[in-house]
Amino acid sequence: MSFVRKPAVAGSFYPQDPGELQRTVDELLKKATALITNDVSRDSQGRPLRQLMGVQVPHAGYIYSGLIAAVGFQLVSTLRPRRVIIAGPTHRVGCHGIALSEATAFATPLGEVPVDQVAQQYLVEHSSVAKFFEPSHVDEHALEVQLPFLQTVFRDIEFTIVPLAVGDCTPEDVCDSLQTLLSIPGENPDDTLIVVSSDLSHYLGYDEARKFDTATLSQVMSLEYPLDPRQACGAYAWSGLIRLARRVQWHPQLLMNASSGDTAGDKSRVVGYSSVAFWKYNSPEDESGIPDRYGALLPQIAREILTDAFQDDNQIGSINAISKVSASDRALQLLLRSIGASFVTLTNHGQLRGCIGSLAPHRMLGEDIAANTLAAAFEDPRFPPLQASELDQIQIEVSVLTEPKPLERFEGESNESYLSRLRPGIDGVILRRDFHRATFLPQVWSELPDVHVFISQLMYKAGLGGAEFGPEIKLETYQVQAWGEAKA
């Protein structure tokens, strides 16, 4: 027997009156417009440089997290998806695996949104963890509160939803389920949008929550999984999206981060919120690397950014490397607008003065260089903030990284054999064990040419000093192109 799932939290999480609800959503989206930049840059062949594939948004009452959610939905408003997968946690009735709904539609005060029953059946037939289980949907708010936003931004198109209530589930299982829905024969995966519903930390003090959530979002930006439910209530669904992003090379972008203490709540016990976009980038037309004629300009641009920061520290948050390039220099503009990861290193008379960077690409290269330049100067915890009097004394080096790749260990391979596959002077190395992580750029090999000393120091940097190197420690490698300032 067919039925429509009725709204469970209308009148509590969001207005029950249709007119009031529509005005509320419209106002939130209007405010969000001023907070985002939807870059539609194109390459020399006219192709968009990136395509939005998914977003993570929060699911508290609209007075608390509505604006943060609206930022994500305002970004997707230019899309025309046929299907929206909404994946979130089970707050009321838990489940093992992924619970689907037998409802033909989900209703809100703004109307009904049809459920894609064909896609759901396809998932059940091709997944070992997806099953129909209505109790997880009846009173669940995490998926429902996203619907009025979708009904508004896609009011002019017909779309269906696949509501996934994700219980105790591995990232691989969720990832496989999402990829199954993106791989239905005869359909274009670009016609499907993924929305993950999750808040961040719960009921910490304002400052503690901000620190905790910043660490979680840093993990997300590096596409590290799994998330723990203490980090995010939608950890299982979000970890699956992160796993998928790693698998298909989508890149995250933090759109907004706040807490209930910033919106309408008490700062003594707050809930954290974020909105994160996941982008698919076009393959570059030339994969041979950045030409030196452009790379040599990057340290100059970084110096201009530092100079601007000292002249007006109130504008630090808006400084961007792209703004330092003439609009007529289209090739360099395109380079800085492409996705990329960078490290910025400051030295003073040959001594390190600051070094901060990104291991995984998660924003435009120009944004990344600007942020890492300022962080190396003012936020490296090993050094005091750079002073204006030092500006003429420092040398700046900008490194642009390739995508990190796992250094796979063969079954039964000895440590000696495994480490012998590292290439001194060529490979940057990321070392991981559980939540411990550290990296050395390839330039560090010049100071630590012995591979055993190199790894020992890297383990110390990761907080694993004294631990033995073994199979539980994972290595990834990457390469860099680096350009330093010409010495006077």
Automatic annotation (TrEMBL):
PANTHER family, per database record: PROTEIN MEMO1 (PTHR11060:SF0)
Pfam families: AMMECR1, Memo
NCBIfam families from the UniProt entry: AmmeMemoSam_A, AmmeMemoSam_B, TIGR00296 family protein
Family to which this protein belongs: Belongs to the MEMO1 family.
Protein's name in the database: AmmeMemoRadiSam system protein B
InterPro entries: AMMECR1, AMMECR1_dom_sf, AMMECR1_domain, AMMECR1_N, AmmeMemoSam_A, MEMO1_fam
Boundaries of every AMMECR1 domain copy: 293-488
Species assigned in the record: Mobiluncus curtisii
Domain of life: Bacteria
